[in-house]
Amino acid sequence: MSERPPISPRSPRAALEPEQVPPPPKRSERARNPFVVVGNAIFTILIILMIGAGAVYYYGRQILETPGPLKEDKIVNIPSRAGKRDIADALLREGVINVNPWIFIGGVFALKASSDLKPGEYSFQRKASLRDVIATIVEGKVVQHAVTIPEGLTSEQIVTRLLDNDIFAGSVREIPREGTLLPETYKFPRGTTREQVIQRMQQTQKRVLTEIWERRNPDVPVRSLDQLITLASIIEKETGRADERSRVAAVFTNRLRQRIKLQSDPTIIYGLVGGKGTLGRPIKRSEITQPSPYNTYVIDGLPPGPIANPGRASLEAAANPARTRDLFFVADGTGGHAFTETYDQHQKNVAKLRALEKQIQNDTVEPSEDAPPPAAAGAPPDTNPTATTPRPAAPAKKPPARPAAPATAPARQGAATTAPPVVER
After folding, report:
1. In a structure prediction context, what are the per-residue pLDDT tens digits for the chain, which is 425 residues long?
2. Which residues bear the site annotation Important for catalytic activity (predicted)?
C-alpha cells in the first residue's frame, strides 16, 4: 500500500485558493504598437477637453444670462476712445455689472463683439444681464435727449440756449441768419455738436417752409419765402394763442393789401436791440417814430427781414390767414385780443381795456396817501408810453367786477410788457 502525503489542515478560504496561480496572458503585439498608444492618448485628451469645454460653456452661459445687480434703470456714459477694460471699469463702478472686468472682456470675445462696442450714453434696464449689457452697447442705441426751442426766439437767443446746454459739444462759428431756424422739440444724443444741431434746425425749416409755401393761399400779399418768414415772425411775436394766429395774420395781410403801415411794436424793439430780442423796458414815445429799417410805424410794408424765428403754426397762419376784414386788434383783458374793422370800434375796445386795467389795479393795490395814484397796468406814464392810442380820461364802459383772466396778455418773448393796440396813425 502506497503512502499518501500527510494532509495538512487549511482554512476554508485557503482551500478555495488555487495551489498554483496561472501566469498572466501575454500582451498582444497589436496593443504594443506605438500608433495605438499615441491614438489612445489623443483620444483621452480629446475627451478631457470636451468635458472642460462643456464645463466652461455651461459656466459662461450662466454668467452671461444671470440677472445683473441693477435695481432700477440707469444711464451710463461710455466715453469715446474707451477700451474694453475702461468700459468694464465704468460699468462696474456704476453698478451695472458685478463681475470681474476680465470676465466682461471674456464675454465680449465670446459674443464676438470686440470691434462693435460704441461710445455714447446708454440706458441699461433693471437687472440687465451681462449679455443684455453688451448687446445694448453693440446696438448703439444711445439715449436721446429732448431739446425744446420755443417759438419767437431770435437766432442769437437760440445760440445762447445751445451754448448753455451741456449735452452738446463744440462751439458755433457764426450766428445763423434770422428766421432760418425752426423752433421745435428735437432729440439729440449727448455729445452732438452745436453745429450739427443748427444744421438740423435749418434743414427742418427748409422742408417745412417748402411744404407750407406749396399750399399757401395765392391771394396772400407775399411774393417770396423770405417775405413769408418775415410776416410769420411778426405774427409770432404778436400773439401766443393758437386760436388767434390766423386772425392776427389777417390783420397784417389786410393792411399790406391796403398799403397801411403794419405798426407792430415788436418790430420797433428789433430795430432797437436786434438779435438780443428783449428791450428790458417799455417802448418810449420817441422810439415809436424813430427811423429804423424794421420800425413798421415808420416804414411801409414788411421790414427787410424776419424779427425772430417763427414756429410752424405762425408760418401756416401767414400762408393761410383768416378771411376777415379786420384792420385793428388790442388786448381784451382775458389773455387774448379784440379784433375790429373800424378805427372807432377799435378806440372803444381800447377804452374798455384801460377801464378794466384801472379797475383791477384799484382792486389789488391800495394807494398811498403820500404818493400819486398808480397808473393802470399797460398804461405807463406819458414820458414812457407803450401804446400810441391816447389814454381816455374816463372809462367808456364799466368793466366786469371779476375778470376771468389778468388784465393784460402774458408778455411775449421780446415784446413789450403789455400788448399795445395796432392802430392806424
Report:
1. 556 666 566 677 766 666 666 677 666 666 566 766 677 778 778 888 777 777 666 666 778 888 889 999 999 998 888 888 999 999 999 999 988 889 888 888 888 888 888 888 999 999 999 889 999 999 888 999 999 999 999 999 999 999 999 999 999 999 999 999 999 999 999 999 999 999 999 999 999 999 999 999 999 999 999 999 999 999 999 988 899 999 999 999 999 999 999 999 999 999 999 999 888 899 999 999 999 999 999 999 999 999 999 999 999 999 999 999 999 999 888 888 999 999 999 999 999 989 888 888 887 655 444 443 333 333 333 333 333 333 333 333 333 333 333 333 333 333 333 334 443 33
2. 238
- B/e letters for 126-146, b = 16+ CB within 10 Å, e = fewer, are eebbbbbbbebbbeeebbeee
Distance CA 254, CA 260 (A): 8
Pairing state of beta strands 120-124 and 74-78? Answer: antiparallel
Task: Report the 10 Å Cβ neighbour count for 11.
Answer: 8
Where in 48-99 does DSSP place strands (E)? 74-78
Spans of all domains in the chain: 74-139, 144-366+374-425
Q: What does the radius of gyration of the chain's CA atoms come to, in whole angstroms?
A: 42
